[in-house]
Amino acid sequence: LKEVRRGDAILYVLRSVFLSLSSVATLECEVCSDIGTNCTGNMKTCDDQQNTCFIILILSTLEDTVMQTVAKGCESKEVCKTPKSHLNMGQGKILQASLICCTKDACKTARPQLPPLKTEVNRKHCPACYSGSGTCDEEMLNCTGPEKYCFHMFSRTYAGKSHFPCEGACEFHLAAGWHLTHPSPAAGN
């Protein structure tokens, strides 16, 4: 009887140690999105392949108003390599994004920062066009600040029934998932 209790005690200790180790390995992140620069939401236990929390801040002037949105959630650490992005589509149409990764208490005070808008024209030029619906006429855009790449993107959103062609703009980072041209002859290397 004494050996059974001792065996039970050992199993109990081993199980407790295992459970405490597995709970330490579990990552929880706040999940939310909202207009503005901050949002609050419920904590979510991340999936096994999601090993960091993220916060992304997006500034858009695509609809003729300045709108900032923020989102938080779980993600793979690969997303942490995403550089700050800045897309200038001409006619005051700008899209900027800044993403940071964090874990635990660091997420409570972490705030992504957007790069300041540069208005000084450089010697680069890109064909630019943006439309919230339908087609648009391309014009040459004088790139500003560190913008040195041209990019081409066409997007449709079927669920929301929105459609916007965007043919070219100035950009200063190579962003994953977008087709960007290297500094082109049009960009005035």
UniProtKB/TrEMBL annotation:
<keyword id="KW-0964">Secreted</keyword>
<dbReference type="InterPro" id="IPR050918">
    <property type="entry name" value="CNF-like_PLA2_Inhibitor"/>
</dbReference>
<comment type="similarity">
    <text>Belongs to the CNF-like-inhibitor family.</text>
</comment>
<dbReference type="InterPro" id="IPR016054">
    <property type="entry name" value="LY6_UPA_recep-like"/>
</dbReference>
<feature type="domain" description="UPAR/Ly6">
    <location>
        <begin position="27"/>
        <end position="122"/>
    </location>
</feature>
<dbReference type="InterPro" id="IPR045860">
    <property type="entry name" value="Snake_toxin-like_sf"/>
</dbReference>
<dbReference type="GO" id="GO:0019834">
    <property type="term" value="F:phospholipase A2 inhibitor activity"/>
</dbReference>
<dbReference type="Pfam" id="PF02988">
    <property type="entry name" value="PLA2_inh"/>
</dbReference>
<dbReference type="InterPro" id="IPR004126">
    <property type="entry name" value="PLipase_A2_inh_N"/>
</dbReference>
<protein>
    <submittedName>
        <fullName>Phospholipase A2 inhibitor and Ly6/PLAUR domain-containing protein-like</fullName>
    </submittedName>
</protein>
<dbReference type="GO" id="GO:0005576">
    <property type="term" value="C:extracellular region"/>
</dbReference>
<keyword id="KW-0593">Phospholipase A2 inhibitor</keyword>
<keyword id="KW-0732">Signal</keyword>
<keyword id="KW-1015">Disulfide bond</keyword>
<feature type="signal peptide">
    <location>
        <begin position="1"/>
        <end position="29"/>
    </location>
</feature>
